[in-house]
Design a protein that fits this description.
- The protein is an alpha/beta fold and 240 residues long.
- The chain is 39% helix and 18% strand.
- It contains eight helices and ten strands.
- Helix 2 crosses helix 6, helix 3 crosses helix 4 and helix 4 crosses helix 5.
């Protein structure tokens, strides 16, 4: 199934939002753009699908999680998928010694600051456990529920949404969680028909990457790029 043939469910518009990484102001603007689009171009039904990576690197991870936890709780049309940075938060809470160093060197320190905590450059095992305990103490229950409730993937019509991509040649229902949130080269370099058009993030580009078998909506918002919103309807697509 190639882009241009792939179709959304009848009467449904799909909005996909790229990696947020703590850029809450851009997220607010994205939702305002979607609301304006729905006002100008009404549709019977819609979904807003986030492809993950809500936290780390940017200044307002806690604000992003507050916004999205409330939106997804109040509106079933908002679908939030798991990104590798969101997985690192879950891993840190479960195993601070094993997962902490990777997370803290990949923007986790910024997430902690957004919750009012500081991390030091070199953390001992004891300090990693203490840091996890302090983070768990200040993390609102609704935020923890949000992280724990993130889905790995969502298929709507002929479009398959996930964070990083899929393992080519493996059936969609047999994809590993690790591939869905971490894969890069094996997926990005594969030009075959996957049976669906994959909409993903994870690998930032200067502009949306549109190929016959996939669309990458990560345009590096945290690095100064836009927060991309893709609109899919019928067999067509456009960007807000």
């Amino acid at each position: 199934m190639w882009l241009g043939e792939a179709k959304t469910p009848d009467g449904m518009r799909l909005y996909a939002i790229g990696d947020v990484h703590g850029c809450d102001r851009l997220l607010q603007d994205a939702y305002a753009a979607i609301a304006a689009d729905l006002d100008v171009n009404p549709v019977a039904d819609h979904r807003i699908i986030h492809v993950g990576d809500y936290v780390d690197r940017g200044p307002a991870s806690a604000g992003v999680i507050e916004r999205l936890s409330a939106l997804s709780e109040s509106d079933s049309r908002v679908v939030c998928l798991l990104g590798n940075h969101d997985q690192m938060v879950r891993d840190f809470l479960a195993d601070p010694v094993g997962a902490g160093p990777l997370w803290l060197t990949n923007g986790g320190d910024a997430t902690l600051r957004s919750y009012g905590l500081d991390a030091f450059g070199t953390e001992t095992r004891r300090r990693l456990r203490d840091l996890r305990d302090r983070f768990a103490a200040v993390l609102p229950a609704a935020h923890l529920d949000f992280f724990e409730g993130l889905s790995l993937a969502e298929q709507l019509g002929d479009f398959f949404f996930c964070h990083a991509g899929i393992r080519p040649g493996v059936p969609l229902d047999e994809q590993s969680p690790e591939d869905l949130v971490w894969i890069r080269d094996e997926f990005l370099s594969d030009a075959r028909d996957h049976g669906v058009v994959v909409v993903h993030g994870h690998t930032p580009q200067s502009s949306p990457e549109v190929l016959p078998n996939r669309i990458n909506v990560d345009t590096g918002a945290v690095f100064g790029g836009p927060l991309t919103v893709l609109a899919l309807e019928g067999t067509g697509y456009r960007f807000l």
